[in-house]
Amino acid sequence: MTLTAQRRQGKRFFSLTDTEMISSIDGKYNEQVKCYFRRLFPYRTHSVLRDGTRKPLPVDIGILYPTVEEPFYLIHTIGMSGAPMQYPGSAEFDAKKSSYGELYMMLPGNWPFSACNDVVDGDDPAAWPLHLLMELGRFPHVHKLWLSYGFVLPNTEFCEPFAPDTALSGLIIVQFDGELGEMKLADGTMLQLFMPILLYKEELDLYNTLGPDELIERILDSCDGSFLVDVKRTNIGLLQRE
């Protein structure tokens, strides 16, 4: 099933604004990306939330619904790889190999979607993680930069919370080894897969002191190693002050 996301009311995540369309968008990888995640997480109901903004390139969101065996949602971008990210610096860098990327996140199975006919509605206030992922997929193309492990990003310069029911207000990018870290496309291109871990402002402030590895390890230790989004999880930055 396919739904279309309308523009979110009020401020957009990461202070994004519309920019000109990228002239060389190629959606040839979209179907491969959808099939890849459906193969990794099989036997799930699935739907796609279409991008209603579509600038500078369309980034849709694939939604894989919870199962009894795996009671969590898997959401992922479709279209971030419509254009390569721009790598700063070295002309020797193999852009074909690693400059394409997509994102994914995991939400607990009891995430408070007010689903209609068991399908997530993009206009549901609880669907903010889908819009967050959509905007994050556009971010490197809007700002002509590169996402990689350890990249941190506040939600606006004032680190505003992502939603009214949480103080989470930033993120750090992680990348795993194996099938959840990259996928090989039919033409030989390696597509990088990234997962954002949502952060509190105080954790963002700790980044320069702890570095990405220690910060991520402490966060995971506090939630028993779970990568599911928890809007009320322990704030490691506040523990550091005690």
Automatic annotation (TrEMBL):
Q: Which InterPro entries match?
A: SUFU-like_domain
Domain Suppressor of fused-like: from-to ranges? 59-233
Protein name (database record): Suppressor of fused protein
- Per the UniProt record, the source organism is Megasphaera vaginalis
